Amino acid sequence: MLVGATALALITTNAGISLAAGTLRIGMTASDIPLTTGQTDQGGEGQRFMGYTVYDSLVEWDLSSADKPSVLTPGLALSWNVDPADNSKWIFKLRENVKFHDGSTFDAEAVVWNLDKLLKTDAPQFDQRQSAQGKSRIPAVASYRVVDPTTVEITTKTPDATLPYQLSWILLSSPANWEAQGKSWEAVAQKPSGTGPWKLENGFTPRERAELTPNTEYWDKNRVPKLDKLVLIPLPEANTRIAALRSGEVDWIEAPAPDSAQSVKDAGFNIVTNAYPHNWTWHLSRIEGSPWNDIRVRKAANLAVDRDGLNELLGGFSVPAQGYLPPGHQWFGKPDFKLEYNVEAATKLMEEAGYGPDKRLKTKVIISSSGSGQMLPLAMNEYIQQTLAEIGIDVEFEVADWNTVINIWRAGAKDASSKGGTAVNYSYFIQDPFSAMIRQSQCNLAPPAGTNWGFYCDPEMDALFDKVRNAFDPAEQDKVLQQVHEKYVNDALFLMVTHDVNTRAMSAKVKGFVQAQNWFQDFSQITIEP
């Protein structure tokens, strides 16, 4: 609350400053400015506002349509192809004549330099903060090399059809700028240089604001920003965001409180929603001693959640879960276990597991106070806490800010930072096979190798993941992913709760925004009416 109040006071202080007609001010849910050096922190929101704005990746997402799911599209790589003679080797052909913001040239050497900054601990440019954000995104990468100035070869540990999805998370910063800033990432943070459509030229004030300006020389002329300035303001508390929007101190807020939606619309603001690849779960620990090792307990908890009631709490701004993936998803399949609200069946399962009125299950769950994709985590978790109590599960919460929760998630359930928690409330980007399921559930991707927080390990699931990696035909891959999702649901691997609809509230003066079915958005087409 203090951070939000401080930020709001800062906006009020700056209210007298003359703003250009094309200035868009956004109230983020993050409690701080995302990491600016390339690989962002603050989850998907960090990538949205400080990732795909200042930087580009080799492979990106088509964010141009609100009517169809996003697909991969060429970014700094014009094309990518797997070697038909060796499916572990990929060739990426790069764009020519692309410049970083500092004027230096983007080429194959820059790609290798950026991969080294994440993966090669003895490289001079290795950055632990960026590595913590990016290394787990690309576990398939075994080696890489420059073929020529516009060609990079990347070799995977085993054949892996998901590599382009993995690389979409890797953002490329300027080697020359790192040199110019005294080989100091701390200095680069205040004067970053990417190839993206926006520049961060004047540094930023931690926990207060960052101002982005257009890169008028951007390589994609259709995405040169139309705004004069994009201002990012951390406002982690929902009511503070609403107050800032109502007072005209920001033009746009992420995740408005659902109970304010009607009054916000009545006041002339627009509420914008769209389906996007998101879920809201409890990621369950499977380490020794965890109560979630018993499938009866996992299924009981899933049957005890009143998802429709939670949807009412959220003002209808959610899609109640029927599985880990949203209803109608091409990978949904036909799971046998139904996520209905059935307290009687849940209670019976708890009794079969040895629990009852005289032996209640007591456990701790790690949750955030706000954050990217987390919706309204405090209210939502309190609701679930009440419904689980009905079947004999008493939940204690360990509350932390979103970035701290991300760090706990990366460290894993065995780490001391989890403080004995047996689940972590986490919202997942579920747009691609790797980010959706593989990295959460493969045996060898448990921390520190990856983000299988709960140390879940099932050889049958790993065999399915191997099939996904070797399915270079999309239709074949979809069939295997349906089997993966069926196992997710039938084994109740997560507490599967809901799916967000990416709610935003904004001034009627905001024009040209197309809300893509994606965690990420394109701000280049937006204008602000005077």
Secondary structure layout:
Blueprint: H1 2-13, E1 23-28, H2 43-51, E2 59-61, E3 72-74, E4 77-83, E5 86-94, H3 108-119, H4 128-134, E6 141-148, E7 151-156, H5 163-167, H6 175-180, H7 185-190, E8 198-199, E9 204-205, E10 209-214, E11 229-234, H8 238-246, E12 252-254, H9 261-266, E13 270-272, E14 278-284, H10 295-304, H11 307-313, E15 318-320, H12 343-352, E16 361-368, H13 377-389, E17 393-400, H14 402-411, E18 423-429, H15 433-441, H16 459-469, H17 474-490, E19 494-500, E20 504-506, E21 510-511, E22 527-528
Parallel strand pairs: 1-11, 1-12, 16-17, 16-18
Antiparallel strand pairs: 2-3, 4-5, 5-7, 6-7, 8-10, 9-10, 10-11, 12-20, 13-20, 14-18, 14-19, 15-19, 21-22
Helix pairs in contact: 10-12, 16-17
Assembly category:
single chain
Mean pLDDT: 93
Give start-end ranges of low-pLDDT stretches: 1-20
- What is the distance, rounded to the nearest whole angstrom, between the alpha carbons of the first and last residues? 32 Å
- Describe the largest sheet: 8 strands, mixed
What structural class results from the helix and strand content?
A: alpha+beta
Query: How many individual β-strands?
Result: 22
Q: What fraction of residues sit in β-strands?
A: 15-25%
The helicity comes to: 25-40%
Shape type: globular
The number of helical segments is 17
Rounded to an integer in angstroms, the radius of gyration calculated over CA atoms is: 23 Å
